[in-house]
Amino acid sequence: MVAAGLPATFGIIPAYCPLHALPKPMNIPQNSLVLYKNGPARVAALGDKLDIELEDGRSLRVRPKDVLLLHPGPLNSLRGLDVPVGEVEAACELLDGGQTTLPELAELIYGAYTPATAWAVWRLVDEGLYFQGTPEVVSARPLAEVERERVVREAKAAEREAWNGFLQRARAGRCAPEDAPYLREIEEVALGQREQSRVLQALDCDQNPPSAHALLLRLRHWDGMVNPWPRRIGALLTPPEMDLPALPDESRLDLTGLPAYAIDDEGNRDPDDAISLDGNRLWVHVADAAALASPDSPVDLEARARGATLYLPETTIPMLPEEAIPRLGLGLAEISPALSFGLTLDADGVVTDVEIAPSWVRVRRLSYDEVDTRLDEEPFRGLYELAQRHQARRRANGAVFIDLPEVKLWVGDGRVEIKPLPRLRSRMLVTEAMVMAGEAAARFALERGLSFPFTTQDPVDAADRQPAGLAAMHALRRTLRPRQYSSQPGPHGGLGLNVYAQVTSPLRRYLDLVAHQQLRACLRGGDPLEAQAIIERVGAAEAAAQGIRRTERLSREHWTTVYLQQHPDWRGEGVLVEKRLPRGTVLIAELALETRVKVADSVAPDSVVLLRLTGVELPTREAYFRVG
């Protein structure tokens, strides 16, 4: 059967039937059509070399071997090489994967072999969808293969169109919903999940997270409310999902008749410590997390991998499963299970008569502000007197007291809020009670030879222990050696104590939980962990907690920068705490922010300077200020 529109002479043909023979390359006629560098050319003159005319009107002299003959001519002008209408798909189907020549294919598709049809056929061969090969031998592709290739090419063409559209929009500083795949690639760089991006390269951006972050802001795909640091550092941003076991059936000391107070900032959601005063005896009650998280249980292993609760201004990711807070948080139920630390202070402020016991407590929650107005009432007056006595002893033993500004920073409804924390006596009261509990627990463990995660710190030179002014405090803080955890007891120079361990936050610090596990094993006649197990837990928890602390610090810096971005006209005061001309380090108390600014030579440390914001760079967490 003859395909519609095809010459009758092509009703039945063999796979290769040379109806026309192209001249050999050396027998190229004048005014013929040749292929030069994949474009059409007309042979204008013959000789040792050929004079050819190109589409753009230029004339060149080339060697005969540099061209391929497509049609012998005569061809008077390249302007007449318009593509005619032909039966391309029918010819491909008729050839059915066979071979032919360029002249034959021109007649098969267009009904004639002319310069225009020769050029049209070569474009089809060069395109490679239906036909492939050379002018002498052209192969037809099977239609099924053509269809598959067509689908692939259309997809690639659509991808090129989408890519070019995205680049055009991106260079104009905008994006569209269909740009999601390219934006995800930029996000992966901004979040530290990949190192290279063809998008960044095409837009002449540096291949690093800050550059990607800046681009996402420029495209308005991200705004300041996107905090990239937790994901960039690799923090776990979902809470543990395993179930907690039931509270063990065991005897507990009944302290429900003794008023107990969990004193925290307004809005605190995980109250894990409370205090009571029984005559002259201090009780520090701590959430009994170890009762539900025994060593090497699934809950314990998950907490070890996390190291600590992650506190971000925009959210909190707990170290323990979420149900631990309502079940163990002090003051969240009428009666709460606790591990209670009882102790007394002698006249010199030394912790004595230590008692530790699982207990039941009835806790009332109060804020620091509320307690600060009631320090002339019992039991708060008695608690404050104990705190003063213990602090005086620590001060005499060389404790370091640094009182730098602190703020509460939180995010909600698209706004960042920063509130300076006032210097309240109630904060000192609670802090000192927690230190007493830590000292009591460490002594309890030391006296019983119990392997324990002790906290130590190298001592500070006597001349630096009592800094006067923010500049001296700033300088002292930079010289302090970091605290360390060890299975071996040692002095904590910063606290002025011979032995100390952190035990008051087992809901949110893993090593506090380990301390509780050891104490419970000792109290219940179980098998405490050996020193090597403590060392392993210290290493694992500290490695995880370092990431937590870094995430928290960088996130606070991010949100502080966003706060300033939301307040472009900010003006305020700062205190010069370090001077290295021409710039000095200024501490902005209301933001708990240190910044470098140009200061005059006459400005002395601890001087107050007036500042105004001049700009912010969110990707690098930089804020710029000027004096005046």
pLDDT average, as an integer?
92
Q: Number of helical runs?
A: 16
Radius of gyration: 40 Å
Question: Strand percentage, roughly?
Answer: 15-25%
Q: Which ranges are low-confidence, i.e. pLDDT below 50, for 5 or more consecutive residues?
A: 1-26
Report how far apart the termini are: 93 Å
The biggest beta sheet reads: 5 strands, antiparallel
- Give the CA-based shape: elongated
Query: Main sheet: which strands, in order across?
Result: 4-3-2-1-5
Helix content: 25-40%
Number of strands: 26
Structural class: alpha+beta
Your description of this structure?
The protein is α+β, with helices and mostly antiparallel strands. Helix content is 33%, strand content 22%. The chain has 16 helices and 26 strands. The strands form 8 sheets. The chain has a 5-stranded antiparallel sheet with strand order 4-3-2-1-5. Strands 9-16-15-12-11 form a 5-stranded mixed sheet. A hairpin with a 4-residue loop joins β2 and β3. It starts with 32 loop residues before the first strand and ends with a strand. Mean pLDDT is 92; it is low at 1-26.
